[in-house]
Amino acid sequence: MKSRVAAHGLFHRHPGNPILDPSRWPYPAAGSFNPGAARVGDQTVLLVRVEDLGGYSHLTAAWSDDGLTDWQVDTHPCLLPSEQHEEERWGLEDPRIVWLEEERKFAVTYVSYSPSGPLVSLATTLDFRAFERFGPLVPPEDKDAALLPRRIQGLYGLIHRPIMHSGEAHVWISFSPDLQFWGKHRLLLPSRPGSWDELRVGLGAPPIETPDGWLLIYHGVRTTSAGAIYRVGLAMLDLEEPWQVRSRSPEWVFAPEEPYELGGNVPGVVFPSGAIWNQATDELLVYYGAGDRSIGIATADMADVLTYLREHTQAR
Ligand code: BMA
Fold first, then answer.
1. Residues with C-beta less than 6 Å from any ligand 1 atom
2. Are 132 and 123 in contact (CB under 8 A)?
3. What is the pLDDT tens value at each position of the chain, 316 positions in all?
4. 57 CA to middle of ligand 1, Å?
5. Span from the CA of 250 to the centroid of ligand 1 (angstroms)
6. Which domains, ranges and CATH numbers included, belong to the chain?
7. How far is the CA of 74 from the centre of ligand 1 (A)?
8. For ligand 1, what atom is nearest to the CA of residue 93?
């Protein structure tokens, strides 16, 4: 029988961390962080949130053959705020990428920072050079969204994170027949009073389809006298009824520890936003923003992640 997997031993930092930071950028940047991730042909692309020196963000692609080393950063941004989209006026942030098999396109859900608050927009692409914009999916304030890669009972699913007036925020799931009109809204993962994720929770990487269900890698926030701490937890959703949470980590599985996570522009932040599961090696690569300034990779064996979640069947 497999031995019990300790939460803190699940993930390992890549020795090359941080793999990207503003010093590697071909133009001036204050931060390069919170990337979406995808495999395109035989390369990994990171769609990186780049914060310019004016404090506004846009998206630029970086490419690597093995998804770990030798990153080539495009010389120009691929998604800048569009004048035709007023909701993008204060920048584009935190993209999540999903391959939509039915559409045969990548769907990029990103935060459009509108003057009346952040909301979630959708664009599609095949090559991370040309994009088609579909505009806002949900009104402000809402963030941290990704589509499910396939329809469930005939409907597309969107996991997202509306923010309440109180500042608290929980993860929700909504459904749509056409990627445009959204309904069937349900609370999915609430923040847990008293816990490490008591203030806010938000989707990290897009949901990953596993034999046990949809794996969610999420961030949880607690405010302390020294400021907010962003840590990482796991949850498993039912495969065919993804509004049902099958298990959730009682403890965090990854937290700021290294200087680039404890420092940076916003100290004490690890913010997963992309993940790639190499099914040949069973390795899960999680790409995360560190301190709102740089990018790190955390790796885990998917078998260990699934074992851990099978042992934590508490749903909420
Ligand atoms: C969240 C988002 C993220 C950011 C995090 C920590 O609200 O804005 O982009 O990484 O805060 O500052």
1. 34, 93-94, 230, 266, 269, 271, 289, 292
2. yes
3. 444 666 779 999 999 999 999 999 999 999 999 999 999 999 999 999 999 999 999 999 999 999 999 999 999 999 999 999 999 999 999 999 999 999 999 999 999 999 999 999 999 999 999 999 999 999 999 999 999 999 999 999 999 999 988 888 999 999 999 999 999 999 999 999 999 999 999 999 999 999 999 999 999 999 999 999 999 999 999 999 999 999 999 999 999 999 999 999 999 999 999 999 999 999 999 999 999 999 999 999 999 999 999 998 775 5
4. 12
5. 22
6. 2-310 (2.115.10.20)
7. 24
8. 9
